[in-house]
Fold these 3 entries.
Entry 1:
Amino acid sequence: MTIKFSDITGGGIPYGNTAGRPANPGVGKLYSNGETARLELYTQASGWQNIVQETPGVSSITGTYSEQTNSGTITISGTNFVSGAYASAVGTNGVEIQAASTTYNSLVQLTATFTNLSNAYEPYGIKVTNPSNLFGLIPNALYVNASPVWQTSSGSLGTFIEQVSVSVSATATDSDSTITYSLANGSSLPSGLSLNSSTGAITGTLPDVSTNTTYNFTINASDGVNTIPRAFSITSTAITPTVEYLVVAGGGGGGVWVGSGGGAGGLLTGTLSITSKSIPITVGLGGSGTRDEGGAGSGPYVSGTKGGDSILGTLTAFGGGVGGSYANALAASQSNGGSGGGAMENTGSQFTANGSTLSGGTGTSGQGYPGGYYIASASPTGSQYVGAGGGGAGSAGAWANVTSSAVYSSTERKGGNGVASSITGSSITYAGGGGGGCNSWNGPVPGTSGLQCSDGGAGGGGAGWTFSQAPSNTSGASIDRYNTATNGTNGLGGGGGGVGWSGPNGKHRAGNGGSGAVIIAYPNTYPALSDIPGTLTYDTPTRAGYRVYRFTAGTGTITF
């Protein structure tokens, strides 16, 4: 059988432009439209339809793929997209992964959502396939945005003492993006701390807490696409360390004209628990010694003063009492103190106390001892005018006995000893009483040095002294001396020494008391003091395993 071409095409496929289409074609009639470069089919429902689709073209994409969510929605721009087209990603391994969904927006735009892409095969080409199986492709277009990777382990960033400066970091890395850090919703840092959004550093000063406190919070590390949270904590521990302390007040001044020694400053030592971060401190000054500027007890007298109190928080060590002076009775309140000043026959005449005993000043219980007493059982003669030693923090002052022949013995009229302490890391004795003064009618010849009548107590007590007066020199004239006793040692709270008589025209100046000190020591596992005002003078002795602060002058409030 012979088949003619005309039988198949029904006369062949007409050709022309759009205007040349047959006016009344039958359903199913083909027409080659040279104007649109399409092969068209006439349908009853829609008329002439293109039966061969154009090849789609892909020009660009926008959007990102998140490694964190393992998904990404992108917008695809191009040409010749039709309804029913679908997108796919082609990895560097050649595997094509079809989009989970593709939405036709227009001839030039599609929206596609991808899942399960691995960054091992990036960059991905994006392919659009029309229902005609014609497709377009843009290569190396889509990267998987890598998530930040935390380098800092979750959990505690450290434990720190309250009210100290801290600097810790919570950091992450990202292979393809810059990371920013922020606190997750509902999270907060301890007051006083802040988070650096660029570096992840957490810095500032921890707050004051009454008990150990742990702060929990969550930080987000974000690259703008992926946000990875991580939980952390910081613990602030309360300071209630046990603090060793030694508080010694200023020593009292000595007395004049065979005067007695001043009492040492009161001394307190022990341990305490810090319950407040701010503690007031005062270092007591040494009291001034009595002055007799006219000679021979005639005045004018300038009465000595007690030592100043030293304070640590609620603890007060009382200043030492003033030593008694001949012909210048002091009020009992002046001779009493942390340690008492020594007694001297001081009723106005050296003979009125014969056969009697005079008491020295009292010391405060737990802080010091009384001053030595004065006893006269017969009329004083010759060189037997003496003053008693002042009390120390460790023992009473030695008593003065006018019947003794050992007028210059250091065991009589000696100041009371102080108390030894190793709070600074080495043993030091504090708060010794001042030694009593004495008088000598028949002492060394003119021009010789003075005599040390009695020792100050161990711990900074001043010695009692006299310069002797001979009856006359070769021309028969009396010799007067300028008479000064030694001071108590500053920083140790020692009492000033008493001074003897130096002739009818001499001047008598008793020793001043030494200033006190406030010393604290605590384990160096706790931080250094955070604030010491400039009104306080201090140093930091070395003691293994401890922080030591020795305050030797001034007043102010320290802060832990």
Entry 2:
Amino acid sequence: MYILGLTCYAHESTCSLIKDGKIICVIEEERLNREKHTWRYPKLAIQECLDIGSITIDDIDHITYFWKPWKEITGNIYHMLRYFPASLNLLRSESGGNSLLFVRRFIMMMNVGKKIKEQFNLKRKPKIIFVEHHLAHAASAFFVSPYSDAAILTFDGRGESTSTMLSYGQNNTITKIKEVKVPHSLGHLYSAITDYLGFKSFYDEWKVMGLSAYGKDTYVDDFKDLIVYLGSGEYILNLKYFKFHTHGTTLWMSDYFYEKFGPKRAYTDEYTQHTYDIALALQKLIENIGVKIANDLYSITKSKNLCVAGGVALNVLLNKSLVSKTPFENYFFQPISNDAGPSFGSSLYYYYHTLKHNKRFDFNSVYLGTEYSNNDIESVLNDFSLNYKKTKNISKVTAKYIAEGKIVGWFQGRMEAGPRALGNRSIVSDSRSKHMKDRLNERVKRREFFRPFAPSVLEEKVFEYFDMPKNQLSPYMMLVGDVVKDKRDIIPAVTHADNTARVHTVSKEVNPKYWELISEFEKLTGVAVIINTSFNENEPIVHTPKQAVECFLRTDFDVLSIGDYIVTK
């Protein structure tokens, strides 16, 4: 049984293909149309998934979608009436993260089947199975976890009218326990402060997380007034600080907030200690509330396993607190926790929960995208008239370049799904260099100075370099660890201002070529850690060999290791 899963008309438009309950591929439309966080109908991604599965649209048995549009209408009417007349401003506000007004977005969602019919010249419009957004998030984590039962926590900005959901998974069912409704939302709270600090809401929240490492606890106590925790997993925002519930993304904060915490920072303003302190206060608040919710969820379910998904789950500092400060024993953080995840989450929910198939697929890899052959790669290299050579051991040759201080584009195997590059579409470099972070930020990534770079470390060596919460591994870069004190001077390029690192543990079984690269680097240097950042430059992660070459040529890095080929400038 083939099921095609879609997300679109929000952000992170994606197509996924599952076969008999197993994920075959996950393709984000942005990788193909080159529009970051695109909301558009995933026309290219659908065709790519069919090509990877070697099937046609006629082979698809079911199509699932990550949202129930009509369910949102009910919640929106209630919301408009509750906050009337100020809520009339919402009619002029764009939907979160895209340029669509609600009515247009609703119509497009309801007509996604028509778009498929048009794309493939079908005789009739295919039936679309609409799945609630947070159930799709929950399914994306639980049904691919190794657990037969688990407490499930999903939180983001909103889905229909739900912002946070507590649920319980057992075998092939997911049961709702509690839902928190908008405007009370941890995701929207984080987006509101992201906007206040001069960044782009819905997309730059992780910049604020990076800034928090430079903060002092000046506003930590004051920020506690922004949320009232009610117990049993429920909370409400103190709406006297906010305006987004009546004005949408056009006005996030109230005058009361500005009077208490100062004026909004413009994007071009200098970073000040106030900026850092606000970021820290927000981060501590989110961690505090997240831990309270998780602890209450444990009290309700008594499960030793926790699954987490939704955009807020990409906050690795929060995840560290969830592991450190809750009684759960086992944790699964879905690495594709943004809105790409509900594309396959909706399909898994339908396959397991609705159709009652037995749960039997465990997620162990994000390498779910397209792969290119050496012939494909060599053709592109010739088109660009590049200086290249083929090697029998790409990992060994590349490790030598890294040890010499070179910055290397690493393009291998199947593309990763989700927001993080995990060793197949990565830029890699020497973790030992004090100047490498600044060089990467200024001359390659062209981004802010405060944004840290993640370490990729051999799985079997991780505890030599990092203190991980409850000795957890971090195969998907979803956890922060503290850099071991006597290693901070050895790997300064991946040690953040607060002596933490967003760790990526690399398994020989899951990604043998990338594991070998780090192993060869260790043989040369005695250090089993390299820098890993996404292969891009203010654009979606590169997808094709052509995109990799173009990024390599226009940025200041030295070597491209692509397939079995080494390219130098």
Entry 3:
Amino acid sequence: MDLLSTQPRIQVTSEMAESGFKQPIVPTPHDPRDHVVARLRLIGQIEAWTAGAENLLPSGRKTRALLAVVALSAPKPALRGRLAELLWSRRPEEQARASLRQEIHRLTESLSPAKTEIIQVTREHLVLRPDSTWVDVHEVMRATPRQPASLALLDGELLEGLDGVDPSFDLWLVTERERLLDRARSVAETALKDQTDADEIIPAAQRLLQIDRAHEGAWRALMRAYAERGERGMAVQAYDRCRAVLADMMDAVPSQETQKLLTELRGPASNRLPMRPPSAPAPDPEPEAGSGPERADKVTPGIPVVRQEARPGHGGAQIGVLPLQLVGAGPNDSHLATGLAEEITTALMRFRWMFVVSSSSLARFAAESRDESAIRDTFGLDFLLDGTVHRIGSRLRANMRLVDLRAGNQIVWAQRFDRESDDLLSLQDEIAAAVVAQIDPAILLIEARRSASRPHVDASAYDLMLRALPLISRLERGPFIEGGDYLRRSIILEPEYAAAHAWYAYWHVFLVGQGWAEDPQAALETAGELAERAIVLDPVDARGLSIAGHVRAYLHRRLRDAISLHERALSLNPNLAMAWALSAITCAYAGQLDEADRRIKRYKQLSPMDPYAFIFDGFWTVIYLLRGDYEAAATAGRDVTQMNSALSAGFKPYVAALGYLNRPRELLAARERLLALEPDFTVERFLSTAPFEREVDRRTFADGLRRAGIPEKALSVAPVPAV
């Protein structure tokens, strides 16, 4: 008999979590969570049940997706606008909101058997009542290394079967799946490291492998634990399963460290591994915020650290490049892995905010254990770049991964690069360029999140700058203004900090572009002063030069000066994707459309999944519009505005392109959104601020806006002057 069918309540216990919570169990009379009236299982096939075993699951996939988004947003409310964008991204805003209203009605009907308000619905948002609903994902996210039992709930993929609901929802789902796995992996890794007895290590390693089947560290721990218990046959079987998993999932073979362990297990009795080696010493306490340069000096004497010159008080991420592992290559290919690692080290050196430990300095760790924790203890690193190189016929495959050493050795970025191996020197340069271009913004965002989690008391200039970056990209007015305040305080704290000046200038670009500046003229002048100061403070920082070039072009219409700054930025760091994108739009402003197209393609080649694509990909909309390819411009505009519907600059060329096309419904939605973001936007305002050098380009853009129904003039809005 189903126990739940005869009981009025359920409880959540460690037994439930460890068993996977497949079936509810009977509560104890005094359980403090006895008031839970509904249970949501989002891992695997989505399920929803009342305490009386009544099915609450909606029948429609959209309705199920709506329930999932609201549940995963809890305890924060899910805004209606965001829900509409996630589930109906291809529809105009009004239609999307109407569809949302229908799905909310279906959802509330489906949940009615609970006889309790599980989801509160208001005009602005939906929010799950956490006191009334148990959600398996929340239990997994609350797991800790000392209490990891609820990780057993992670026995399937998040929201299995809900892929394809909507492109925007699919992107959101990928992010949520990664977030859940990253959290579970981190907890399981730490729990495994805390074990010293073989009988405890085995279940801890198996728990980690349930989350990440390809985790070689867990496989090695399992092999050692079985060997310590005298079960060498089981240890060898663990190796065989590891080899099969790696071949199936990654087309790879076990690392040299894992193969060496197998050799020790199979060797003569006198040479066999008798027991698990002692645990690595605990890492030093977390450094104080802003202590990047100080940490850079705390390395083992005699081991060189390759790093850029840094001024006291200015932080930066420390990254090491581990010599790559060569897999399946011939005797003449031994230089491939070494050469690529050295090329990556050299490329990283061009990023002024990073402190780089060279691959040669880490060579002894690569030859021995590749122990990530020991590397962090020795060098004080934040991140470690590692990977393998395979020769497959005439092609070369490089599998690269970035490990966050300060977050339980989480893999925070991974990519595979397949290239023809005819010209090895060019190939190494090409792969190294793509690797560093992609991890630069990834590390910046990780550092920003880490900084935001620290106490705000005594924050360094580096911390304050980092906290501003995600607030800028959200483009929500309140957080955006807060981000500007962080940058202002960063400069007050460290007046010589070039990066803070550059980012504050960039912030002013959006302040003016979004129409949020109370005094546009003053904002224009301030942006120019900040950009100038950034160059003076650090004339060899490519990012600062590129931002200064964008200020010159977009705000001041000094295109020749801007192009010169962009060229210098790219000569200093040809792998900075941001520099290629910003130089592309400058070329478009100057009427150099072929060159603009070449540069924006280079940006995309370097960083195909750039976190700021909603800004940079929008430059394609401008290029296509000016070329007269309105269909391509509309497609590009639709894509970028779906990525972030708060950037008014993304809507302007999109609306202009739609003005030339016969798509009234799409045009209406885009125009209304643009005018909601900038109510005072007019053709006259556009012409007074547009940085386009050629009259034909200004006319093409303006005529498209007119055809789209943008007002010619405002009644009482003066044009924004340009410097």
